[in-house]
Amino acid sequence: MKYYIIAGEASGDLHASNLMKEIKNKDTEAEFRFLGGDLMLKQGGTIVKHFKETAYMGGFDVLMHLRIILKNIKLIKNDIFKTKPDVVILVDYPGFNLRIAEFAHNKNFNVYYYISPKIWAWKQSRVEKIKKYIDKLFIIFPFEKEFYKKHNFEVEYVGNPILDALDAEKKNIESFNKKYKLDDKKIIALLPGSRKQEIKHNFPLMLKAAEKFSNYQFLVAAAPSLEKEIFLKYIKNKDIKLIYNDTYELLKHSEAAIVTSGTATLETAVLNVPELVCYRGDHISYQIAKRLIKVEYISLVNLIMQKEIIKEFLQYDMTVENICNELELLLNNDVYRKNMLNNFAELRVKLGGKGASERAAEIIVNSLKM
Fold it and tell me: Which residues of the chain have pLDDT under 70?
């Protein structure tokens, strides 16, 4: 069968690649076309557009690139219509994908959504579009079941694919240090985001906080979609290294992490690394988001646990002082640190076991055979 998959950012590329792997195990004649990234390319198939050409975030950023976004939407629509896939599989990325969903539904293609958009956080009105245009919706967080039940929409809960993507086994710390020419100082990971705008607004403050902890070494988990030059203008003359395509191994060897909001907050917790979450955006986007967001927390860890497990410093609360004070607790207060790690253990239980990608693939392939 022919599968058309759209994953517009790094986390989507990861989870879509694992889904493709499992689909191939169940459909030996599977053919893929996709908007995605390097991990999906490794699974084979034809890439129509790389996600790094489509990843825009925030009202101002989207507005500035609206012509390019609309051009990409038109390109994908035309390609779907031309290639006639058996199913269109959308992975998160709602601003783009819900437009594709409407088109594909109206042209009588099967439309499946893997990893529900976070409409429970904001733009809940989008649930009507999902009910209208999506044939099967796969959810990955336990609290989403109740949300969609409230809106009278049947969903498939498959568990969280992060557990499939993460291997908790550490490599030898000496080999990791040798690979990146590190010294023996303990490591703190910086995860400043996967979009240029996130780097612009978050990275400089992270670096200023890092200056206060000279007895640690700070390593930056650099998103593969971002060129080195984007980071280098901030870290010139600083003893801070960029780590590409090795984020999970970096986290496994880290004492703590400073993380922008997003999937990375959950990945860090699953890997058992004490963390704090911070996020700044441009003023206009923040004011819009503040009025639209419907949830109490922005980090997935706190949302799943339904209480504050990790500190969140948003916009004007994201200060060097706040970051440093929290980091000091994470590193040096044994009781505080142990309590967070105990909560992370409970979080992993709530997420369920491995196999989300396989369960989703089985449902997709079997449903298309009917």
Answer: 54-66, 122, 167-171, 282-295
What does the alpha-carbon distance between residue 141 and residue 80 come to, in Å, rounded to a whole number?
29
Q: Which residues contact 167 (CB under 8 A, 6 or more apart)?
A: 248
Evaluate whether residue 200 is within a structural domain: yes
Check which CATH number belongs to the domain holding 258 and give it. Answer: 3.40.50.2000
Q: Is residue 168 part of a domain?
A: no
Q: 84 and 32, same structural domain? A: yes
d(CA 292, CA 35): 28
Q: Both 67 and 187 in a single domain?
A: no
The pTM score is: 0.77
Give, in order, the Cα–Cα distances in Å from 156 to each of 118, 167, 321. 15, 25, 44
Residues 247-299: pLDDT tens digits? 999 999 999 999 997 789 999 999 999 999 998 876 566 555 555 555 578 78
3-class SS of residue 15 = helix
What is the residue range of 220's domain?
173-351
CB contact at 8 A, 121 and 141: no
pLDDT at position 254 is 96
The vertex-58 CA angle with 54 and 62, nearest 5°, equals 50
- According to DSSP, the β-strands at 241-244 and 31-36 are unpaired
- Which is nearest to 143 in space by CA: 118, 111, 112? 118
What pLDDT is attached to residue 335?
A: 98
Pairs from 236-244 (Cβ < 8 Å, separation ≥ 24): 238/207, 240/190, 240/207, 240/210, 241/180, 241/181, 241/182, 241/217, 243/180, 243/219
Same domain flag for 88 and 202: no
| Sequence-ordered strand ranges (E) for 198-237 | 216-222
Structural domains in the chain (count): 2
Mark whether 223 and 341 lie in a shared domain: yes
For tokens 């907050």, what's the residue?
265
